[in-house]
């Protein structure tokens, strides 16, 4: 994948690659950047390609300028299928399965994913933010899981939310459906940093550039280990991570990195 910027005519996603950073911009502001069938397909395809592209070191997911980062599922698109013979059951199962697969794809991707949030992130949009490895938001961003307000509990967004936020705080968001501001979202653990709107791009790219300068093999090993150990008991987590660290120590990049540190020079990563 060469350094380039592209917008496919049929795609709601803008894509650009520069200096190892793949930027995926949700580009359907007129539809509030909803996770429609087309949006999820475009995101999933871009992430799949990035997985095997050595030119990609870090992925940034943001949105075109506007009030909304992502409004979650496209409810109009979904509601049409209530006219299906099964009242939409098969379609709902399919679309929710696709969304769940997309969120898992972000978590299991061997490269860090950063969300840059400049607007409202609601329902599955909030789930998208929670699924990313890091999240940086403007001081005007808001977050909510409002399904309960329309008779539809945000059960799938709950999975990502509950893995990032304290249980009682997650339940507060899920049961009330109320929006929280960026300051509360940071306090809850949903986002990492809050920045003024005009500095969001600068700060997001600073993080991306810093991470992209690290060994890609080390990032891959570390991200996978982080999520796997979190699901284990304390004893099993230490056993697993000790084994991971042994293998990491034997990698060429670890040998190079430690050598460079001792010799007071910049490391030259080989990704192996």
From TrEMBL:
One of its GO terms (biological process) is fatty acid metabolic process. Gene3D superfamilies: 2-enoyl-CoA Hydratase, Chain A, domain 1 (3.90.226.10), Lyase 2-enoyl-coa Hydratase, Chain A, domain 2 (1.10.12.10). The keyword Transit peptide applies. Transmembrane segments: none annotated. GO terms for molecular function: hydro-lyase activity. Keywords: Fatty acid metabolism, Lipid metabolism, Transit peptide. May play a role in fatty acid biosynthesis and insulin sensitivity. Belongs to the enoyl-CoA hydratase/isomerase family. This is Enoyl-CoA hydratase domain-containing protein 3, mitochondrial. It comes from Breoghania corrubedonensis.
């Amino acid at each position: 994948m060469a350094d380039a910027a592209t917008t496919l005519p049929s795609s709601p996603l803008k894509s650009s690659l520069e200096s190892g950073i793949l930027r995926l911009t949700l580009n359907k502001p007129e539809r509030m950047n909803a996770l429609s069938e087309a949006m999820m397909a475009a995101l999933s395809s871009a992430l799949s390609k990035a997985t095997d592209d050595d030119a990609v070191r870090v992925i940034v997911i943001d949105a075109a300028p506007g009030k909304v980062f992502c409004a979650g599922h496209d409810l109009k698109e979904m509601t049409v299928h209530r006219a299906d013979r099964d009242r939409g059951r098969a379609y709902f199962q399919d679309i929710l399965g696709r969304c769940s697969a997309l969120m898992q794809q972000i978590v299991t991707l061997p490269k860090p994913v950063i969300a840059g949030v400049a607007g409202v992130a609601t329902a599955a949009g909030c789930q998208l933010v929670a699924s990313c490895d890091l999240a940086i938001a403007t001081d005007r961003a808001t977050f909510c899981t409002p399904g309960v307000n329309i008779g539809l509990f945000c059960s799938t967004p709950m999975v990502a939310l509950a893995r990032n936020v304290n249980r009682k705080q997650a339940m507060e968001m899920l049961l009330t459906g109320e929006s929280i501001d960026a300051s509360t979202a940071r306090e809850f653990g949903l986002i990492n940093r809050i920045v003024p709107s005009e500095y969001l791009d600068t700060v997001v790219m600073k993080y991306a550039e810093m991470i992209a300068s690290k060994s890609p093999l080390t990032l891959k090993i570390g991200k996978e280990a982080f999520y796997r150990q979190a699901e284990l008991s304390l004893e099993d987590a230490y056993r697993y991570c000790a084994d991971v660290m042994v293998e990491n120590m034997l990698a060429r990049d670890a040998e190079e990195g430690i050598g460079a540190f001792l010799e007071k020079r910049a490391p030259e990563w080989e990704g192996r």
